[in-house]
Amino acid sequence: MPEFNKNLWAPWRMEYIRSLDQESQDDGCFLCTYWAGVEHDHTNHVIWRGETSYVVMNRFPYTNGHLLIAHAHHKGDFAELSTEDFSEMGQLIRSSVALLRSSVKAHGFNIGYNLGRCAGAGLPDHLHAHVVPRWSGDTNFMAVLGESRVIPDALDAMYNQLMDTVDKTNPFS
């Protein structure tokens, strides 16, 4: 087999790897930073803000439109949330699904929480949900077989597309 068929390059992974190192050096949490920095919502790709939760695009997505619904405060477990906090996160998940259906015409969704590092949580101490849009015939096998992702659009372009569709006044509709 020719050598070029053995390598699948994913240079975007290095940005992610370096960001983890920088975050540990800063001893900070990007989700806490994003919540505190409302003036940087465009740069940070924040879609909506509620009273205790918000929606932000994942900078290292599984696919285009991968959103995170994060609690405002650095809490890592459901037991630390009030019923109202948990309800608001659920409402933002529902609104995120509606937004992605409308803007990127997703056919389905993977929605979930990774609780604890052993469960895949990259940020185990800050509760957040993933909303990943899916399409019939998408390339989900690439992450499994090739240890790489196929993301056909730039993060800023996708943010602009979502913001063109989003109802900025009422994410709880």
Explain this structure to me?
This protein has 173 residues and is of the alpha+beta class. The chain has one domain: HIT-like (HIT family, subunit A), CATH 3.30.428. The mean pLDDT is 81. Helix 4 (83-103) crosses helix 6. It has a five-stranded antiparallel β-sheet with strand order 1-2-3-5-4. The chain has helices at residues 12-26, 30-36, 41-44, 83-103, 141-146, 155-165, and strands at 46-49, 53-57, 67-71, 108-113, 128-134. It contains six helices and five strands; from the N terminus they run αααβββαββαα. The chain is globular. It is 37% helix and 16% strand. Strand 1 (46-49) and strand 2 (53-57) form a beta hairpin.
Number of domains: 1
CATH class assignment: Alpha Beta
Strand order of the largest sheet: 1-2-3-5-4
The dominant shape is globular
CATH architecture: 2-Layer Sandwich
* CATH topology term: HIT family, subunit A
The percent of residues in helical segments reads: 25-40%
Radius of gyration: 17 Å
Keywords:
173 residues; alpha+beta; HIT family, subunit A; 5-stranded antiparallel beta sheet; 6 helices; 5 strands; globular
Blueprint (SSEs and pairs):
Layout: H1 12-26, H2 30-36, H3 41-44, E1 46-49, E2 53-57, E3 67-71, H4 83-103, E4 108-113, E5 128-134, H5 141-146, H6 155-165
Antiparallel strand pairs: 1-2, 2-3, 3-5, 4-5
Helix pairs in contact: 4-6
